[in-house]
Amino acid sequence: MQPPGGEAEQIARTVAASGLAVLAAGLGLLSLVDAATPYPLYAAFLLVLSVGMGLCVPLLSVGIMSALPPDRAGLGSGLNSAAREIGSALGAAVMGTVLTGRFAGRGGGTAAGALAGGDAAARARAVETFVDAMAAGFAVVAVVVAVVGLSAAAGFRDRK
Questions:
Q1: Is residue 1 part of a domain?
Q2: Residue 144: CB partners within 8 Å, gap ≥ 6?
């Protein structure tokens, strides 16, 4: 299968870059969530994130597979899967690092220790601290995705 050319290729690049931008926006919206956020609003933020994933992931996968000759399809599929796994692992690591550093830095200690106590006020503070730390993690990941999206869009322009 040959890579698409001309207008179709430009549309695919634009949609993929737009998908990364929507994904970054969804992550940014999730960074605004607090413990009092109503579930329908939280679900709407997740929907924005999901639309971004739906726009970019299939097109990026097709781009990888179509850039290789048919006899290298196995290699392309393996590289695509490896890149997705590495991205997921790095995203989880960055989110976990920011969350842990922020939670512990604000006096949260460990989540288990904070929630194990019998004091309702201490548990409420622990939940609030955890949610704030999670919001910081989403903000950092949103910035990373935005930078990657901008880099990808710049790379798309260079290939014209």
A1: no
A2: 91, 94
* Residue 92 within any structural domain of the chain: yes
Dump pLDDT digits (tens) for 31-80: 999 888 999 999 999 999 999 999 988 888 888 888 888 888 888 889 88
Count of domains forming the chain? 1
* Two structure tokens written together for 4: 């698409």
The position carrying tokens 């796994």 is 85
Q: What is the spatial distance between Cα 142 and Cα 123, in angstroms, rounded to a whole number?
A: 28
Q: Range of 152's domain?
A: 6-158
Burial of 142 (0-12, 13-18, 19+ CB in 10 A): buried
Question: What pTM, to 2 d.p., does this model score?
Answer: 0.79
Which segments within the chain are labelled E, that is strand? none
Can you tell me which residue has the tokens 């399809």? 73
Q: Which residue type, as a one-letter code, is found at position 145?
A: V
Give the pLDDT confidence of 97-125 residue by residue, as tens digits: 998 888 887 765 666 666 666 678 777 88
24 domain residue, yes or no: yes
- Counting every residue written for the chain, the total comes to 160
* Rounded Cα distance, 106 and 156, in Å: 42
Residue 28: inside a domain: yes
